[in-house]
Design a protein that fits this description.
A hairpin with an 8-residue loop joins strand 4 and strand 5. The chain has one domain: Sandwich (Jelly Rolls). The longest helix has 23 residues. It is an alpha+beta fold and 207 residues long. The strands form two sheets. It has a five-stranded antiparallel β-sheet with strand order 1-6-3-8-2, covered by helices on one side. A three-stranded antiparallel β-sheet has the order 5-4-7, with no helix packed on it. It is 28% helix and 23% strand.
């Protein structure tokens, strides 16, 4: 079963202001989204989690396999005018957002492209809606707001002004993040950081 709607991605426009980004609604079908959520890991703490501990039967692994494919990479290269061949990729999962999350930031300089795939159904909350911002100071000065639901895809090219953030929300908020990185070294550093974070959270849950 194919999960990604690459035709929708290829047909989507790329905005250039305030930085390069595209939003693709329904990049995952309702059937795919339902199957993903039925086997999604139970994440009850905030932060990003690495993929090492995913079980084989989790449908999100099939989605990751497709994101790893040459068709998706080529579509992103064409959309954003970047060369991603041999660039390392990093994945992380989120399942729970804390009230302190969503603060305005640009993403670190070792990231080339950020891909966010939203896995919630019918987001009805005011908070937790990612905004493409005009500056690094005001979360209400935005050009686009993206509800984190129904298989929506958000892709942006990291830059010094790629400001984004959202109003506070605490609770379940599922997403898959993928980044093309500048080097294996930077990918490794992020992976270690996420592993340490996940281990600390696991110990916290057990206490």
């Amino acid at each position: 079963m194919a999960h990604l709607n690459l035709d929708k991605l290829q047909a989507a426009d790329v905005a250039t202001e305030p930085y390069m980004f595209t939003v693709v609604s329904g990049f995952l079908s309702p059937e795919s989204l339902r199957a993903i959520n039925e086997t999604y890991p139970n994440i009850e703490k905030g932060g990003s989690y690495p993929l090492d501990s995913l079980n084989e039967n989790m449908i999100i692994k099939e989605v990751i396999d497709e994101l790893d494919g040459p068709e998706f990479q080529k579509a992103i290269e064409n959309k954003f005018g970047v060369e991603l061949e041999d660039r390392p990729k990093m994945y992380s999962l989120r399942g729970y957002t804390r009230s302190k999350d969503g603060r305005i930031h640009t993403d670190s300089k070792d990231k080339i492209i950020t891909v966010l795939l939203y896995l919630n159904e019918n987001w009805n909350q005011d908070g937790g809606r990612l905004r493409i911002l005009n500056n690094g100071n005001d979360v209400d000065d935005y050009v686009t707001e993206v509800a984190p639901d129904n298989g929506t895809l958000l892709v942006f090219k990291r830059s010094d002004n790629s400001w984004h953030g959202h109003h506070p929300f605490e609770g379940q908020r599922r997403s898959l993040q993928m980044n093309w990185m500048t080097s294996e070294g930077s990918k490794g550093w992020h992976r270690v950081r996420h592993k340490i974070s996940a281990a600390v959270k696991k110990l916290t849950n057990a206490s």
